[in-house]
Every structure is written in C-alpha cells, then in structure tokens.
Amino acid sequence: MSTEATGMEYAAPDLEALKFNADGLIPVIVQDDENDQVLMLAWMDREALRRTLGEGRVTYWSRSRGEYWRKGDTSGHRQYVRSVAADCDGDTLLVRVLQQGAACHTGTRSCFDGRELTGAVGDPDGPDGEPSTGDAAAQTGPQAPVG
C-alpha cells in the first residue's frame, strides 16, 4: 500500500486486474517526464506491456499494421520508460518517458502540437455553464435551422 498526500491508502495495480478492451488492447497516454507535456496516445496489449516493463523502452501494438513497434527503431526518436501507472479504473495507462527527438510521426515534439480545436473555455470565476471565450456558436449555443 502507498499513501498519497491526502493520507488515503491505495493498492498498487495488479497487472492481471487491468481492463483490456474486446480486442485485448489498452490505451496508453504518453507523457514527457521532464516537462509533463502529453506526447501521444497509443495502444498496448499484454505482450507490449510485458516488453515495456521488462526492457525500459516503450513497445506499442499497431492496430493498423497488426504488429509491435517501438518509437525510434526507424527514426531514432526513442522513448525511454521512466514510469508506468494505471488509472483508477485500470482501463488506461500513463507512461512517462524520456523522449529523444520528436514523438509524432509528422516530426513534431507532440502529436497534439498545433492541433488545438476551437471552442468554449470554462472559467472557474464565471457563472456556471457560461463559456468565457471561444467561437460564436459555442457562446450562443445551437442555432435553429433556417427555412
């Protein structure tokens, strides 16, 4: 058991208790251990997780190619494992890595660089349910059909 800052105890996750989907996969959020930037989302099966925990390099399962892959084996942009954690439901993993070079296949540091969607932004100091910024549709709500 471990104790969080709240003083509550929690059990370390049992690998057998992880919840893989119907295809035997679990989503993996990959985060830079040095600056907390979210780098990418990928998938693992049990074997990819076993390899990741045993080798110190992250192994993923490619849904499109149907094979295992490790970031950097062809590009040189490697990911070295710093920690692996399961979320509270055991259905998602967070892998913190030391990232060398770009994480995204497009060459950007993160797969999310320059891809922000426009929309409402919540404001904890504003009235509940009222966006503080964003596009006009988000601020005014759905529009009635014309005609």
Automatic annotation (TrEMBL):
Which pathway or pathways does this protein act in?
A: Amino-acid biosynthesis; L-histidine biosynthesis; L-histidine from 5-phospho-alpha-D-ribose 1-diphosphate: step 2/9; Amino-acid biosynthesis; L-histidine biosynthesis; L-histidine from 5-phospho-alpha-D-ribose 1-diphosphate: step 3/9
Segments traversing the membrane: none
GO function term, MF aspect, one: phosphoribosyl-AMP cyclohydrolase activity
Q: Which UniProt keywords apply?
A: Amino-acid biosynthesis, Cytoplasm, Histidine biosynthesis, Hydrolase, Magnesium, Metal-binding, Zinc
What Pfam families does its record include?
Answer: PRA-CH
- The EC designation for this entry is 3.5.4.19
Q: Where in the cell is it found?
A: Cytoplasm
What functional role does this protein have?
Catalyzes the hydrolysis of the adenine ring of phosphoribosyl-AMP.
Q: What is this protein called?
A: Phosphoribosyl-AMP cyclohydrolase
Q: Which organism is it from?
A: Leucobacter soli
| Gene, per the UniProt record | hisI
